[in-house]
């Protein structure tokens, strides 16, 4: 048989193949030739054949039939055979093939071979692919070689030992004695691999770690070696760009990190050397930076003193300014890890980090974005948000969803004002609207509902945005919801924050109908717009048009739309009397307790937790108002006294929720009384639009102002209001009678009568003497049951004796604030 | 690096090729002025593994590492490896690597073992590799050709070789070939 072709020939031939099929043909032909050659058991050419087989394997063709041949080569006496045989074993064999166990004996013999290179080959193979059985069998041999004086073998034995330990952790103890004087070697290769071995042992076993710390005094040894490396002059062997064996330095730093973690003594011992490395290393090339980086990681991980930590973070900050992208990348990664623990130090580099948002590299941008969100706080929210919104505008789509969510979260936590919050949300919706997550729509709606004074502004802006673009579904959904709720504000041009636009009811309905028919709208969006149109039937006057639209959709193909339309139709026809009540303004929604008063107080840069303990969670509404109050007063000096009676604005006929602006009575007076009962008097609110009761958030009860019911002849009677819990139909009125004349009023009796639809209960008065000159008041509690929520009217009769003469008076009280009876 | 090598080897062969293809695809797309670190593709074990690469002329050297390696250090390691190749092959070029893939493996074996860095001193590495190459050569090398030629000649039946050839005044002394 002709001699098998040489490797070189084969490679050349294969490279001439022009198609995949041609190449496959050549390979198959050669494989066949090799197989017959193997069958002939020709020792001379076996190595050549296996070499060719390995080449073909590299190209991706199956080569398993060569496995046994590799074993035969390993068993041969020639170095060449062994070399290619071991290589073949490493590439073709692994634990899954039973064949590999046959190698064990060969390796054992070779580990004791007279030629060090053969021993080296054996160690290499064992260290790369030795299975646990092999490792168990041969661990003893490896351990012997670990103690040899031959540095070539010692370093290989060290790494082989690491592999053994990884495969069979119980054998770790066995290598302990051999490690005793590993570090006193001069040869850098041995030093390097020894440090790797020690690192592995320390990482795997806390006992080992403790042992090395105490008994072996590892830290001082490592510090000494490191010092020598730095101090020693130029050594051409180990020099890489002017630094002496950076690989070893990095390794040692890493081991120091493990030793110093959570251990004060060790950390102390390495403080100086770390400071030295940090300040003396050249940073012009990658090498120096690699060492510095490792030093920084070590400093941050051990119990270093604060000065050192600040130094470390500053180094990272310098890295951020480096031209080399790789350095910036690793710096951002490390800062991300440390931002939780050393927040303030990282804050100093905020502007550099924000600049990295504009980098061209995707990996850097992503890290900069994550880090920026971690750094946002109450103080820098405005500036940071500007940058982040700009980033949102211009970044790749893969970032937009995460960035949008991050913006919402940050805005929710740190928004300095409601208007700013809404503006920010608008910005996100208009620029990245299609990437916003699905759950943000309900969150946004809740937020908008709760920002009562911004309704007109919000709906106006959303309307304008809709006119521009109806393709971004989240934006469209939020906008149509708002128009449905606050459409009346829109057409009445009530906006205070900006120039009100002139828009007619028909124009608004045009827009909403446009959404219904547009191809861009998803079914969910259509549902929103249909409901919005329906709600406008109580707010607009052009009801007929709305009726028409609704009836058309009663035969829509979309089942959801059809159902809604049919129900709304029914509302128009059979239940018209309920329509206004059902389609009333939404009440303010309860948010989860976690966003309590504390959060909001922080927006002023204060950290006053003082407000929180007094108020149980349900009182978020007052808290929101407090936020507005603080905003209006613009100051940090207003102590958030949320106990004050909430100031109110008279409600409009639509029965809408109260806007809470206006006067703020910070003085004492009747104020304290209502407050404590406020939290208790709120029933859980009902968003269910089908209940027959008009929905009205009784938090407003907290806002019922006191009134003067009677003021004549020096006798003044004030009424203050509360709501009884649990029955919301009972108004609890406390009368306060005061006397400005010079003489006391004695035998004071207060009587009251109410219309038939009400029920009245008078409790006993505090006393029947009203002291002169406003020195005191008489109080009495009246409970009024008002199941039909009719306007409260009362006739009162007062009898008392003043200066000996009896006085009697009748009066009608009609000026009850609407909140008291609604 | 070790864990990844194992991981790759434990896949079926066609998976190996796919991993290689995906890696190449990811790396070749990269612009020259972005950083040299890439999160690994979906086939390579998840986010703990990173690809660190360097671009030399037409070649990419890609190292797949886990979090226990220093990224910047690996960049230097790649440089050391390439410089060693250069020394061993004398101005290495792409063809050298193709035609001597076994030698490349042997050099790599002196630098990295079991997925961990073994030796970074270039002189040390080149010395060891040289010695081993010479050992191979003395045995006849992979091709084993000289040995065959020698044995072939040995088996030839040569007639008696005259010791002296006299042609006129020229006297040629035939050197004696030592029997082998």
Automatic annotation (TrEMBL), chain A:
SMART domains: Alpha_adaptinC2. InterPro entries: Adaptor_Complx_Large_Subunit, AP1_complex_gsu, ARM-like, ARM-type_fold, Clathrin/coatomer_adapt-like_N, Clathrin_a/b/g-adaptin_app_Ig, Clathrin_app_Ig-like_sf, GAE_dom. One of its GO terms (cellular component) is AP-1 adaptor complex. Residues 702-817 form the GAE domain. It is a peripheral membrane protein. Keywords: Cytoplasmic vesicle, Golgi apparatus, Membrane, Protein transport, Transport. PROSITE patterns: GAE. Belongs to the adaptor complexes large subunit family. This is AP-1 complex subunit gamma.
From TrEMBL, chain B:
Pfam families: Clat_adaptor_s. Belongs to the adaptor complexes small subunit family. Residues 13-135 form the AP complex mu/sigma subunit domain. Gene3D superfamilies: 3.30.450.60. CDD domains: AP3_sigma. GO terms for biological process: Golgi to vacuole transport; intracellular protein transport. It is a peripheral membrane protein. Part of the AP-3 complex, an adaptor-related complex which is not clathrin-associated. The complex is associated with the Golgi region as well as more peripheral structures. It facilitates the budding of vesicles from the Golgi membrane and may be directly involved in trafficking to lysosomes. In concert with the BLOC-1 complex, AP-3 is required to target cargos into vesicles assembled at cell bodies for delivery into neurites and nerve terminals. This is Adaptor related protein complex 3 subunit sigma 2. It comes from Sparus aurata. It comes from the Eukaryota. Keywords: Cytoplasmic vesicle, Golgi apparatus, Membrane, Protein transport, Transport. One of its GO terms (cellular component) is Golgi apparatus. It is found in: Cytoplasmic vesicle membrane; Golgi apparatus.
């Amino acid at each position: 048989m002709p001699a098998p072709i040489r490797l070189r020939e084969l490679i050349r031939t294969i490279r001439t193949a022009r198609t995949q099929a041609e190449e496959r043909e050549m390979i198959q032909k050669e494989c066949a030739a090799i197989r017959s050659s193997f069958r002939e058991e020709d020792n001379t050419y076996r190595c050549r054949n296996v070499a060719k087989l390995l080449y073909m394997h590299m190209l991706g063709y199956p080569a398993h039939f060569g496995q046994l041949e590799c074993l035969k080569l390993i068993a041969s006496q020639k170095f060449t055979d062994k070399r290619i045989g071991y290589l073949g074993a490493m590439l073709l064999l692994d634990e899954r093939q039973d064949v590999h166990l046959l190698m064990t004996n060969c390796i054992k013999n070779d580990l004791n071979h007279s030629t060090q290179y053969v021993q080296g080959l054996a160690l290499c193979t064992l260290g790369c692919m030795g299975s646990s059985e092999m490792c168990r069998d041969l661990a003893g041999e490896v351990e012997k070689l670990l103690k040899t004086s031959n540095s070539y073998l010692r370093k290989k034995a060290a790494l082989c030992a690491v592999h053994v330990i990884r495969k069979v952790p119980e054998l770790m103890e066995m290598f302990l004695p051999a490690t005793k004087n590993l570090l006193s070697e001069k040869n850098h290769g041995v030093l390097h691999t020894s440090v790797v071995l020690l690192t592995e042992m320390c990482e795997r076993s806390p006992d080992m770690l403790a042992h090395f710390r105490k008994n072996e005094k590892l830290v001082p040894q490592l510090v000494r070696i490191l010092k020598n490396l730095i101090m020693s002059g130029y050594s051409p062997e180990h020099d890489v760009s002017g630094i002496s064996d950076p690989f070893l330095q990095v390794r040692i730093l890493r081991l120091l990190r493990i030793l110093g973690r959570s251990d004060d003594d060790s950390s102390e011992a390495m403080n100086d050397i770390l400071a030295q490395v940090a300040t003396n290393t050249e940073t012009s090339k990658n090498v120096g930076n690699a060492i510095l980086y490792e030093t920084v990681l070590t400093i941050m991980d051990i119990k270093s003193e604060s000065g050192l930590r600040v130094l470390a973070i500053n180094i990272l900050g310098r890295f951020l300014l480096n031209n080399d992208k790789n350095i910036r990348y690793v710096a951002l990664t490390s800062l991300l890890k440390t931002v939780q623990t050393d927040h303030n130090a990282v804050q100093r580099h905020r502007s550099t980090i924000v600049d990295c948002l504009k980098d061209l590299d995707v990996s850097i941008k992503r890290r900069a974005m994550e880090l920026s969100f971690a750094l946002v706080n109450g103080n820098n929210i405005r500036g940071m948000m500007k940058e982040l919104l700009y980033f949102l505008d211009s970044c790749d789509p893969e970032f937009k969803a995460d960035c949008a969510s991050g913006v919402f979260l940050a805005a929710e936590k740190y928004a300095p004002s409601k208007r700013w919050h809404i503006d920010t949300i608008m910005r996100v919706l208009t620029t990245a609207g299609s990437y916003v997550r699905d759950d943000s729509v309900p969150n946004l709606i809740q937020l908008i509902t709760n920002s009562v004074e911004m309704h007109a502004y919000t709906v106006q802006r959303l309307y304008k945005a809709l006119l521009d673009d109806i393709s971004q579904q989240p934006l469209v959904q939020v906008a149509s919801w708002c128009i449905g709720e606050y459409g009346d504000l829109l057409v009445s041009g009530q906006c205070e924050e900006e120039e009100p636009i002139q828009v007619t009811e028909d124009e608004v309905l045009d827009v909403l109908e446009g959404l219904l028919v547009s191809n861009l709208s998803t079914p969910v969006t259509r549902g929103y717009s249909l409901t919005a149109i329906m709600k406008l039937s109580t707010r607009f006057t052009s009801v007929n048009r709305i009726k028409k639209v609704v009836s058309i959709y009663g035969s829509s193909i979309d089942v959801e739309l059809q159902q809604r339309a049919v129900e709304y139709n029914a509302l128009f026809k059979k239940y018209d009397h309920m329509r206004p009540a059902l389609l009333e303004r939404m009440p303010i929604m309860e948010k989860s307790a976690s966003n309590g008063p504390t959060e909001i107080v922080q927006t002023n840069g204060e950290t006053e937790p003082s407000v929180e303990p007094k108020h149980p969670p349900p009182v978020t509404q007052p808290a929101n108002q407090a936020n507005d109050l603080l905003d209006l007063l613009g100051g940090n000096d207003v102590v958030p006294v949320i106990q004050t009676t909430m100031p109110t604005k008279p409600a409009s006929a639509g029965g809408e929720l109260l806007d809470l602006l206006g006067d703020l009575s910070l003085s004492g007076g009747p104020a304290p009384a209502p407050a404590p009962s406020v939290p208790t008097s709120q029933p859980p609110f009902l968003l269910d639009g089908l209940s027959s009761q008009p929905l009205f958030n009784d938090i407003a009860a907290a806002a019922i102002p006191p009134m003067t019911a009677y003021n004549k002849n020096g006798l003044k009677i004030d009424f203050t209001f509360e709501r009884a819990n649990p029955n919301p139909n009972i108004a609890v009125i406390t009368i306060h009678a005061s006397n400005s004349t010079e003489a006391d009023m004695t035998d004071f009796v207060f009587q009251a009568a109410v219309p038939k639809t009400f029920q009245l209960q008078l409790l006993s008065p505090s006393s029947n003497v009203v002291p002169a000159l406003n020195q005191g008041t008489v109080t009495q509690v009246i409970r009024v049951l008002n199941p039909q929520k009719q306007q409260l009217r009362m006739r009162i009769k007062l009898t008392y004796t003043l200066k000996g003469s009896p006085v009697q008076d009748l009066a009608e009280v009609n000026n009850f604030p609407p909140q008291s009876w609604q | 690096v070790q864990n990844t090598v194992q991981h790759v080897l434990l896949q079926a062969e066609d998976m190996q090729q796919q991993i290689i293809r995906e890696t190449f695809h990811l790396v070749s797309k990269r612009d020259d002025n972005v950083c040299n670190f890439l999160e690994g593709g979906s086939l390579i074990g998840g986010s703990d593994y990173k690809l660190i690469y360097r671009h030399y002329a037409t070649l990419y050297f890609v190292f797949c590492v886990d979090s226990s390696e220093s990224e910047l250090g690996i960049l230097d390691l790649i440089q050391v490896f390439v410089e060693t190749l250069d020394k061993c092959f004398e101005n290495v070029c792409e063809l050298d690597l193709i035609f001597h893939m076994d030698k490349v493996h042997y050099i790599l074996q002196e630098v990295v073992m079991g997925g961990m860095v073994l030796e970074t001193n270039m002189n040390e590495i080149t010395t060891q590799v040289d010695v081993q190459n010479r050992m191979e050569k003395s045995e006849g090398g992979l091709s084993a050709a000289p040995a065959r030629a020698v044995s072939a000649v040995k088996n030839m039946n040569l007639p008696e070789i005259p010791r002296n050839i006299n042609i006129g005044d020229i006297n040629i002394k035939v050197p004696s070939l030592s029997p082998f």
